[in-house]
Design goal:
The chain is 0% helix and 68% strand. With 265 residues, it is mostly beta strands.
Length: 265
């Protein structure tokens, strides 16, 4: 039997930037739930303590290091106009990505270790991954606000005997979706912990990471088993700029982006 995993990432953000993300995954037939928030991350022992759908999530988690109780409902999901990977999703690569909602409104509240978090009028985001392993090296970020929504990923992709730098990004601004992907000839011109530059034709997407937080540990798949540790910072200050030639379409500084950077030093 071929080894594999499937996971969905549900991100919830309050109006003042507190992030609570729930990751539900199945890896080689073993179910797992993980929680990551601004302050900490947790592995959840009772997988039945979380019930999630594209309409909302219900939480009743009670274990030694976390008490999390409440319900969050989702408004209308902002779906991508086309699959975010386009025809690349049919290639035999180790990890395939999907976005179920770039942005949606939230309502409801939870109590996390005695602290009430009100998500009403906050923002949500949902994505998924499936395959065998997360890329050996990659970066990922998401910034979903009332003004714009940005998701960006750059990863080392093994393909047969070769490797290539895969690019995947979607920016929603003023109801228009700007797509950057290897499939439409977008390329990563610069990749560092502090500065990312993506180019596609006359368009340039530039991201500056303005914080140096280290993030919280999460389990990630390697050949279908959740044996790898990565680190995610749920709330990171960034600035992103979208240009068409010399014309600036977006220049936005956002203090609550989620960010992962996994590259060998």
């Amino acid at each position: 039997m071929r080894k594999g995993f499937f996971g969905i990432y549900y991100k919830h953000q309050t109006r003042d930037g507190y992030v609570l993300a729930i990751i539900i995954s199945t890896s080689n037939g073993i179910d797992m739930v993980q929680v990551v928030a601004n302050d900490q991350s947790w592995n959840i022992k009772d997988i039945n303590s979380v019930k999630a759908s594209f309409k909302g999530i219900e939480l009743s988690i009670h274990q030694d290091d976390i008490d999390l109780e409440g319900h969050i409902s989702y408004g209308e999901l902002l779906k991508t106009k086309k699959h975010v990977m386009s025809y690349f999703r049919f290639l035999p690569i180790e990890c395939k990505h999907d976005i179920y909602s770039m942005n949606h409104t939230l309502s409801g509240s939870v109590i996390l270790n005695g602290k009430t978090l009100d998500f009403t009028d906050g923002n949500g985001y949902i994505e998924g991954d499936k395959g065998r392993s997360f890329p050996k090296e990659y970066l990922w970020l998401n910034a979903s606000s009332k003004n714009d929504s940005l998701t960006l990923a750059v990863a080392d992709i093994p393909f047969g005997l070769f490797h290539f730098k895969g690019v995947l990004s979607l920016l929603v601004h003023n109801d228009k979706q700007y797509r950057f992907g290897t499939y439409n000839f977008a390329t990563a011109k610069k990749i560092s912990r502090e500065h990312i530059v993506i180019k596609k034709g006359r368009y340039i997407l530039e991201v500056f990471i303005l914080d140096d937080k280290s993030g919280h540990g999460l389990k990630a798949p390697k050949m279908g088993d959740m044996v790898r540790t990565i680190h995610e910072c749920p709330s990171m200050k960034i600035r992103y700029i979208l240009k068409k030639k010399d014309d600036v379409i977006v220049d936005y500084t956002y203090p609550y982006a989620s960010f992962e950077y996994v590259f060998d030093k």
